[in-house]
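Dear colleagues,

As part of the handover before I leave the project, I'm documenting each prediction I ran so the next person doesn't have to rerun anything. This entry is a single chain, and its sequence is reproduced below.
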Amino acid sequence: MKQSLIYLVILFLISSCKPPEARRPVSNNSGTFIDASIERNKQLNKIEYNQIQSLIKASEKNVLTSDYGFWYYYNNKIETITKTPKFGDLVYYTYSLKTLKKVEIYSKNDLGQQTYYIDQQELFSGLREGLKLMKEGEVVTFIFPSQKAYGYYGDNDQIGSNEPLICEVSLLKHQIN
């Protein structure tokens, strides 16, 4: 009896010491949702790009392309050598927002004077990068595709989903920190 009990314990220990088996996935995602989303975004970007290019061609302004994925032109350019805002600098500015059809969404009066510490506060990406291109006293008009503006969500008020914007910005003051 004692001997059978020992064999039983040894058998139990041997059978419980097998290597772990890999778990199989509960579901197999084929990636079709992600593929469809990518295709939708490509089509949206193409439509927005064509709209913006039509706007630029119709304009008589010298429209520049930024490295950040938007377009801009100077309404008032400062030719003297002054510094542009860098990380941590404080800027005072005003801006207005319009649709690509030039329908005003928010005026400078609606938004009022703004203050912003460069790259240290929340601001939509196009304006954040655009302010870094400006000098004190300049007025610049930016043309932002939706992904550089308010993107998919809009502002939950007057700016809709995937809305490209025209943004006129006046840099009033630049304090170097």
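The chain has a mean pLDDT of 90. The CA atoms of residues 83 and 135 lie 6 Å apart.

All the best with the project,
I.
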